[in-house]
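#help-structures
NK: newbie question, is this the right format to request a structure? protein is Hemophore-related protein
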Amino acid sequence: MRRRSTIAAAVLVLAVALGLVALSLPAQDGQDEDYCTGLQSYYTALQSFAGPTDTAALDQLVDQADNLSESAPEELRDDWRVLADYLGLLRSADGDPQKLAQLRPADPEAVTEAGRAIDAHGQQQCGAGATT
């Protein structure tokens, strides 16, 4: 009997803890859900992306990044703009390996940091990311 009440108390504590965690998470409204869905679609396209010589796939990534730069949470919009601009720069080479070799983003560190910020937010808020 005592063992059963101990188990019941442990289950109750766990349920309360999980409830508190759930209440502390940000609410997913329609806009957040749309962003998370778009982000997952972007990562799916990115996983099958063969490289910047695949212009059709690059066009898709550019379009998705442009859309995500508009639908992203405010704190990520500049990051998405940096990433979309970089993808657009790659697209401007039209798949030509020689042109691609000459391209350099104006601020490579900004592109890297933008990607990290987008990925970290996606993992935390959407359960989606480049590493998930």
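mod (FA): yep, format's fine, and the tokens are attached above. DSSP finds six helices and no strands in the chain.
NK: thank you!
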